[in-house]
Amino acid sequence: MANSPSLLAPGIRQLRLSRQQLRPPLAGSPGDAVRHLLAVQAQEFPYARWTVAQRTSGSTAAVVEQDVADGTILRTHILRPTWHFVHKEDLGWLMGLSHDRLHQGNQGMYRRTGVDEEAAARSGRILAAAVAGGAHKTREELAASLDQAGLPSKGLGFVYHLMHAEISGILVSGAPVRSAGGALKQTYALFEERVTGRFAGPLTGPEREHALGQLALRYFGSRGPATVKDCSAWSGLTMKDVKLGLHVAADLAPGALAAVSVDDLDFYLPSADAEALGALPVPNGSTPPRVDLIQCFDEYVMGYSQSRHYLGGTAPYLPEDNGPMHVVLLDGRLAGWWRHSFTGGACELDVRMNTPATKEEQAALEAEAARYGTFLGLETTVKLL
Length: 385
Fold this sequence. Notes:
about 375 residues
């Protein structure tokens, strides 16, 4: 019989917080945090920096940006696909595993935007030549190169030429640059100059099975307890592939992962955590509350689909009233929403709690805001909406 959610839901949240390094032991560096999580959703770059930094001991925005600049952390379209941070040592094999499904998923948009085989091959050559030899280029600069060749330089056609080049192992993120106004702008670089490890197209046969096993070990090791369907939705792979990955993982690292039944679902997680799950203490108010400000696309949210309800609310979401959309966690459970804004060299955090904060919860929120201010290097205040 499955265990009662009222008994094990807090334990699931505690294990996820720990495995995702939102609780100690934290990662030693931003690169280590990304390597641990394998891929970190990163379409909103300013908030994605925080996602990485808050899993380390005191990393600042500048430290994360430096890891992106020197290529330890790469940003590209991978998995579902959307923008993700991936460690340079993992992107080659992960792209080889994702390559076919990414292109298949984009086929409709390729047809709509005219990105056929001939056009993609031509734009790929132009884009590769533009960034070769460490000549990192902004989107605007690459648009100019395609425009000169009579290829799309704006709109969806341009976007999908760039994405095709990323998925094909031609382009990847370069070193960000500052505009004249001080805004951080992303650049593109040559994939083979930034990625550690060979990428020669889609993986097949034993190489693909080995990669599936590695993905299973890394996903469930960093996000467990999680289900096969959770992993499938996160990775963009089929459930059949995830199950094969779990089978291969048992040979690659015998005993590393275990399965438990909770709420009529099969969860996979590190074996040590499976033994501890039922014995974890339930928060009862005897210890100070802990608040985490996470972005709405944080892996604590996006790492799950079938079992995201253990978060205790619906996320991510787009508010209709232009309100905050990033997530306030109270002891690992969704408790409100937040956003940042900048005025006069300071940061204001607008926070909307689902229920009025107690004195202790307010103190925990202020402490987390101070940590965010240290990350930004700015004075930070909290405004409750």
